[in-house]
Design a protein that fits this description.
With 468 residues, the protein is α/β, with parallel strands linked by helices. It has three domains: 204 residues, FAD/NAD(P)-binding domain (3-Layer(bba) Sandwich); 123 residues, FAD/NAD(P)-binding domain (3-Layer(bba) Sandwich); 111 residues, FAD/NAD-linked reductase, C-terminal dimerisation domain (Enolase-like, domain 1, 2-Layer Sandwich). Strand 21 and strand 22 form a beta hairpin. Bound molecules: ligand NA7.
């Protein structure tokens, strides 16, 4: 939450932050998931992998680099971890500057205005507040029914490993799974993913399959339609994973140095004693039920971020929602958070950025006859000399079919997808139309210009490959 925003209004503000170590004992500092075990270390490790690709490309561009090159995990880990620690420190300083009292305590509700904070040493502090914001986020799930599951690590651990995880199996097919498997492959590790159903549930499925197609061609092994059954530690120290192939119904096994669970995240609401404050949760998801103004079932208690029901599990939405809440509470504002058309990017080796509706959602909401899908397979200029395969470089724009064709969703797979989509997200937020987009002149030569040049519809059945 933007506690600093609340403090700036002159109110007395305290923030309780306490990291429960992961089952593997990993702990970290102030700043939450994004800073410590999410976006920041993930993007830096993704960049590490991209650099490896650039080194290979460099040869064709005339750089005399002896191949193969070797990547040293410990050097990367130290660099990433010290950057994260500098961010922890920066957050602490910012809180002090804004006169926010930071308390390294784990909070539980005693009643609707009282929270008890407990330190690592067990010392208790009672705090009372007029307004309370819950923003405890979520933590990776572990399966309850798989013997040996605790031998595996999660995304809470991968970024803090001092030594290379070696041959790794990532279980799950969410963006967390694909991103981690992507950078592990990229730094040269033998990496596999186990997918029980579909990749990237909730995302456009044509795009999701292009992402996994690229990963497979890039060296990540994908075990499709497989579910883990058991993990055993062998005398060699390796982990033997036994799984069932749901298509052949056959049990298979293989040993790995590391198994990483990426099977979703659970909201951190269980230990908060929310019942004592009367805060309602959805018993199925464990998430806190909130209104449009982030208010829970108790009028002065708010919930923001991953633990709030129905909210995207994304850092920037939580930050913005916190800021707006502070402005509403203390700054005479009435502006509510608008959760529509939030852009996001999956940082797989070939990145996937999107904003707005998937093709499936657009069909469901408007009917197939009422949408027009423009698409293109394009080749980034940089790929040509490097002789990179551009098979999965693809753009899809979903529009309304009538009139000027309002853009409902934009999907882009290719280099720097986040940078590309961020700009177009403004247009889509402003209800841009296909007509307006095509009248915008592209910047040559970029990948993003191929978005402006989209002109082949899926309905036409014409070849969408960009040739010039
Ligand atoms: P998600 O999106 O909840 O994804 C969890 C993934 O793990 C998904 O691929 C699941 O497959 C898979 N899964 C779940 N349980 C198992 C077991 N037991 N075995 C194998 N595979 C399993 O999780 P994330 O935390 O990564 O993402 C959270 C949100 O952030 C997400 O909703 C986005 O909006 C942003 P399934 O598809 O259920 O078959």
């Amino acid at each position: 939450m933007r506690v600093d925003a609340a403090a700036q209004s002159g109110r007395k503000v305290a923030v309780l932050d306490f990291v429960e170590p992961s089952p593997q004992g990993t702990r970290w500092g102030l700043g939450g998931t994004c800073v410590n075990v999410g976006c920041i270390p993930k993007k830096l490790m993704h960049h590490t992998a991209l650099l490896g690709g650039a080194i290979k490309d460099a040869k064709n561009y005339g750089w005399d680099i002896p191949l193969p090159v070797h990547h040293d995990w410990s050097t990367m880990a130290q660099a990433v971890q010290s950057h994260v620690k500098s961010l922890n420190w920066g957050h602490l300083v910012q809180l002090q500057d804004r006169k926010v009292k930071y308390m390294n305590l784990k909070g539980v509700f005693l009643d609707k205005h009282t929270v008890q904070g407990e330190s690592k040493q067990g010392e208790k502090t009672i705090l009372t507040a007029e307004n309370i914001v819950i923003a405890t986020g979520g933590r990776p799930k572990y399966p309850l029914d798989i013997p040996g599951a605790k031998l595996g690590i999660s995304s809470d651990d991968i970024f803090w490993l001092q030594d290379s995880p070696g041959k790794t199996l990532v279980i799950g097919a969410s963006y967390v799974a694909l991103e981690c498997a992507g950078f592990l492959t990229g730094v040269g590790l033998d990496t596999s993913i186990m997918v029980r159903s579909i990749p990237l549930r909730g995302f456009d499925q044509q795009m999701a399959h292009l992402v996994t197609d690229h990963m497979a061609s890039y060296g990540t092994r994908i075990f499709w339609k497989c579910i883990p059954i058991k993990i055993e530690k062998l005398d060699s120290g390796k982990l033997q994973v036994i799984w069932k192939n749901l298509e052949s119904n056959v049990e298979e096994r293989e040993s790995f140095d590391t198994v990483m669970w990426a099977i979703g995240r659970a909201p951190e609401t269980g230990d908060l004693c929310l019942d004592k404050a009367g805060v309602q949760i959805n018993p199925e998801t464990g998430k806190i039920i909130v209104g449009a103004n982030e208010e829970t079932s108790v009028s002065h208690i708010y919930a923001i971020g991953d633990l709030a029901e129905g909210r995207p599990e994304l850092t920037p939405t939580a930050i913005k929602a916190g800021k707006l809440l502070a402005h509403r509470l203390f700054g005479n504002s009435t502006e509510l958070m608008n959760y529509d058309n939030v852009a996001t990017t999956v940082f797989t080796p070939l990145e996937y950025g999107c904003v707005g509706l998937s093709e499936e959602e657009a069909v469901q909401q408007y009917g197939e006859d009422n949408i027009e899908v423009y698409h293109a397979y394009y080749k980034p200029l940089e790929f040509t000399i490097a002789e990179r395969d551009a098979t999965q470089c693809y753009i899809k724009m979903v529009c309304l079919r009538e009139g000027d064709q309002r853009i409902l969703g934009l999907h882009f797979i290719g280099p720097n997808a986040g940078e590309v989509i961020q700009g177009f997200a403004l247009g889509i937020k402003c209800n841009a139309t296909y007509t307006q987009l095509s009248s915008t002149i592209g910047i040559h030569p970029t990948c993003a210009e191929d978005v402006n040049k989209l002109n082949i519809t899926k309905r036409s059945g014409l070849d969408p490959t960009v040739t010039a």
